[in-house]
């Protein structure tokens, strides 16, 4: 299911607009809009702007920032009160269990992969070579679906000018909400690549490196599987 498609459908229903009406206002066919809402097609940035204008809302309401849920400050009234210290006669094993439980909420386990043999149930357990532990932001991991992030070990120097070198760990946010110029992780013919993406006319896309030694690839959305966007990189020193 597409995040953008779901937001478009929900907003359209709230405004009592039919598929046909919104499609006409947005300059696309009714079937194409239906495919976007169902997640079969990913709209480019220009089309997202057209649809948001037709709905009379901000683009951010269709394509919200994916980091907002982690860094958004909580209201003071929602802040948990510090627990009072008290003497307890609980057994050490119960205390250890409590500490383990607290630590499990303070960090999250993110899989590390270096290939992709299947796009089903991504990341596939057979492709996982390691795990990294990341701190939880603002104690909000309990509301975040498991498997939202994955680390991918870069296999080439195609994105060297973006400071992603072979062997570096690229943190990938698993999403289908992709914008022009995003660095994405995608598969084509059972091989993984990290490249920038540019949406062209219809379903055509350009996948390009920022290292001149690697040639750009003209392809179609139908020929690739976009797994997510690179949001951070960890490199060796």
TrEMBL record:
The keyword Manganese does not apply. Residues 72-91 are annotated as: Disordered. Residues 8-62 form the HTH cro/C1-type domain. It comes from the Bacteria. Keywords: DNA-binding, Transcription, Transcription regulation. The keyword Protease does not apply. PANTHER family: FELS-1 PROPHAGE TRANSCRIPTIONAL REGULATOR, PTHR40661. This is Helix-turn-helix domain-containing protein. It comes from Lutispora saccharofermentans.
